[in-house]
Design a protein that fits this description.
This protein is mostly helical and 89 residues long. The chain has helices at 13-47, 52-79.
Length: 89
């Protein structure tokens, strides 16, 4: 008796590719914001300020994350969602 696959990638390729893009966008945005949060927190502790740099860097993280996410979405929509196997466009 053959072993039944739990998840067939070939059958659900478009669905999994979309899930990959959405999760990549979310993690990119969260990563930018968290990195800037910790940098701002470090600078606030170093200069003994009360959250000025943390707030500033969170806003910069949101803006920077938005720019990176925009570029990722633009790249996916220009290539039609498919990336070349060798990494070239």
């Amino acid at each position: 008796m053959g072993k039944k696959k739990i998840f067939d990638y070939k059958e659900n390729e478009s669905w999994t590719e979309n899930l990959h893009i959405v999760s990549q966008v979310g993690l990119t945005m969260a990563g930018c914001i968290m990195l800037c949060f910790f940098v701002g927190r470090f600078i606030d502790r170093f200069f003994v300020t009360k959250g000025i740099f943390t707030t500033l860097f969170i806003v910069l993280g949101i803006i920077g994350g938005g720019v990176v996410v925009f570029r990722q979405i633009a790249e996916v929509t220009q290539t039609g969602g498919k990336h070349d196997k060798d990494g070239t466009d």
